[in-house]
């Protein structure tokens, strides 16, 4: 495997530290320590923690596996369910101690940083668009009702997922994920 | 009107500062300055910022008007819609620059403070219980389907609301609230 550049090491550490601690509590030194690079090297690569946060959001976004939502070899409703099961398993593996970096920044920092606000908004929009594609396919094949348009439904379901993570972290319990699966796959998409 | 005690002034300022800035970014001095009291007076009333945060959550919770959800003089479905319109109007008045204090703490700080985690969990549970009462009434009168039990539906809708606020803040647009009303009152509760 090719050796990661110092910049890549900092970005990976930032995703981990921002995800674990949030924007304000994750300091530059915490991030460079986690990356195993000198703190002084930070400003060779990034102009600010805010600048790094935007790159970290992109890197985190790439781990959301949006391509799985576009895999037309899998029946759209099966694909949607598997997709949220992937998200669920990730959270359960972390014992419900982390949420979604988009939602984290979307509550903590979007009111205070215009560049992060725009990056979170675009990240959520890309995600909703990928979801809406699979929902639209399911509507076209008649497996899902077309009463609500696919974009509206996608954004609603994504919002519901983000809020579900708040419940799961607050209860520190995977049971808090059940209402999402019950309502989304028992009522909304069926 | 009775003069508020110094403790009440600090709690009111804390709700405002935590809501505007989050737990980490709202410092004790910021809170006491907003309250118009000397910083030194803080520790006469609270042992820590964490201790104050729990009291601020209670105060914020009292402003959620849960009693409106229990007003049986109003038809349950009308009551539920009016309730979320009250929450929506509050956010629109703030130009979508704040969310819900439960959701804010539920992303930023619950993984790092056991007492705050428990307080957020209980706050959300109380809210879901109040919502489920109105949903159950609507199910009993036959205006809402009983396919999904009232507690599950209440928690799901509350989660969806919390996530909707993330979208509204990230887009800084009241339009981001529409999918919630379209799906909740167009499909789930009807």
Automatic annotation (TrEMBL), chains A, B:
Signal as UniProt keyword: no
Cross-referenced InterPro entries: Homeodomain-like_sf, HTH_TetR, Tet_transcr_reg_TetR-rel_C_sf, TetR_C
Domain HTH tetR-type: 4-64
Gene3D superfamilies registered for this protein in UniProt: Tetracycline Repressor, domain 2
SUPFAM superfamilies membership: Homeodomain-like, Tetracyclin repressor-like, C-terminal domain
A Pfam family reported for this protein in Swiss-Prot or TrEMBL: TetR_N
DNA-binding interval(s): 27-46
Keywords annotated in UniProt: DNA-binding, Transcription, Transcription regulation
Single GO MF annotation: DNA binding
PANTHER family assigned: HTH-TYPE TRANSCRIPTIONAL REPRESSOR NEMR, TRANSCRIPTIONAL REGULATORY PROTEIN
Protein name: TetR/AcrR family transcriptional repressor of nem operon
Organism in which the protein naturally occurs: Actinopolymorpha pittospori
């Amino acid at each position: 495997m090719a050796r990661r550049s110092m910049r890549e090491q900092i970005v990976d550490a930032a995703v981990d530290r921002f995800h674990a601690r949030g924007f304000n509590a994750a300091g530059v030194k915490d991030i460079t320590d986690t990356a195993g690079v000198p703190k002084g090297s930070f400003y060779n690569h990034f102009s600010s923690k805010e600048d790094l946060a935007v790159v970290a959001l992109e890197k985190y976004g790439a781990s959301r596996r949006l391509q799985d939502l576009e895999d037309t070899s899998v029946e759209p409703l099966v694909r949607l369910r598997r997709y949220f099961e992937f998200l669920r398993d990730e959270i359960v593996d972390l014992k419900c101690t982390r949420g979604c970096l988009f939602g984290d920044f979307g509550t903590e920092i979007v009111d205070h940083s215009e560049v992060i606000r725009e990056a979170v908004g675009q990240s959520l929009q890309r995600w909703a668009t990928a979801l809406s594609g699979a929902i639209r396919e399911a509507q076209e094949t008649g497996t899902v009702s077309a009463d609500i348009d696919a974009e509206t439904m996608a954004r609603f379901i994504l919002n519901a997922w983000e809020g579900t993570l708040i419940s799961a972290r607050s209860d520190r319990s995977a049971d808090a994920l059940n209402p999402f699966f019950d309502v989304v796959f028992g009522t909304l998409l069926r």
